[in-house]
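Practice problem: predict the structure.
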Amino acid sequence: MKLHRKVLVITGGGGGIGLAMVREALNRGASVFAVDLDVSTLEDLADEVGDRLAFQTLDVADRAAVAALPEQVVDRFGVVDGLINNAGIIHPVVPLDELETETIDRVMHVNFGGTVAMTRAFLPLLKQRREAHIANMSSMVALACTPNQLFYGASKAAIYAFSEGLVSELAGSGVGVTVVIPGVVKSGLIENSGVASQDLIDPRVPQMETAAAAERILDGIERNRFRLLIGADARAFDIIARVSPRLARYLVVRGLEAALSD
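Answer:
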C-alpha cells in the first residue's frame, strides 16, 4: 500500500519512533491523525504541513476515548487507510514480586489492550477500503523476555501472537498486517515511561536513530511485509532465538547485567 494520499492513524505519535513515523508519513504524501498523551511536539509540525496533520491527546487504555476516535478521524479526513499501533510503556526494572498490581495492569492495558482496542475500533473502516493496513509494534523481548521486565515482554509477545492471528483472519479482505520487531532504537521509551533512572540498554550497544527506524517501518508497510525486523541486532537476535533459545535467554540476562552495572 503506497502511502501517498493515504490517511494514517498513529498512536504514540508525540515522540520517539511514533513522531518519526508521523514525519516520514507526511514526507511520503500521507495525511496523519496522531494521538498521544502529550502532543505538544506536533504543534510546530502542524504549522509546517497544514491540514494534512491532525492530533489529539488520547490514552489508548481509555476504552471510551478509543471507541470515539474513528468518528473524529472520519470527520477530519473522510476515510482511514492505515493504523499504526505504536503506543507503549515499560515498567520499573524489578522482579515480579516487587511489582504493584496497578503497574502490571497499566502496562498490559496500554501495550496489548491498547493495540487490541484501537484495532477493533478502526477495523470496520479499514475493511471498507480497497487497500488498507494495520501495523503493530512488538519488540525483540517478544523473542526472549528480559528479566525484571516480565510484563513489557509479555505484552509485546501478546502483540506478536495477536498479529499472527490477525493476518490470517484478514486474509483476502484487502487489509494487510505488519508486526514490527525493532532492535535498539533511540526511542525515548524508558524516559517516557517514567523509569528514566533505570537503564535497560547496555551503553555499549549501538542505537538506531528514530528517523532510520521510521523509514524502514513505513517501507515494510508499503511492501505489505508481515514480519518486519528493524536493525541488524533484531535480525541477529531473531536467528539466535530460533536456533538456541537458551543462548538467547543468556544474552538478554548478560545485557541487562551490563546495563545496570555501568
